[in-house]
User: Which sequence fits this backbone?
């Protein structure tokens, strides 16, 4: 979904614009088997928590919808 323009750069709004943090969704373990790790990844959807982000690419900006609304409020 195209959000608009900012300084000539097109803004694309995508719910997949997420960045990983250092916060784990389940504790790290050296003794965990690959089978159990696979099950944990399936249950939690990943190993690290993801937060909304803004990505700058050569073709424009990619924003999470939550960040896009905050961006619109800041521009008013």
Assistant:
């Amino acid at each position: 979904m195209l959000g608009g323009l900012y300084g000539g750069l097109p803004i694309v709004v995508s719910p997949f614009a997420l960045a990983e943090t250092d916060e784990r969704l389940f504790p790290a373990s050296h003794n965990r088997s690959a089978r159990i790790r696979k099950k944990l990844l399936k249950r939690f959807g990943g190993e690290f928590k993801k937060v909304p982000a803004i990505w700058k690419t050569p073709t424009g900006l990619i924003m999470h919808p939550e960040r896009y609304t905050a961006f619109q409020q800041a521009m008013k």
Remarks:
- Residues 2-75 form one domain.
- The chain has a mean pLDDT of 91.
- The helical segments are 34-44, 65-75.
- Residues 34-44 form the longest helix (11 residues).
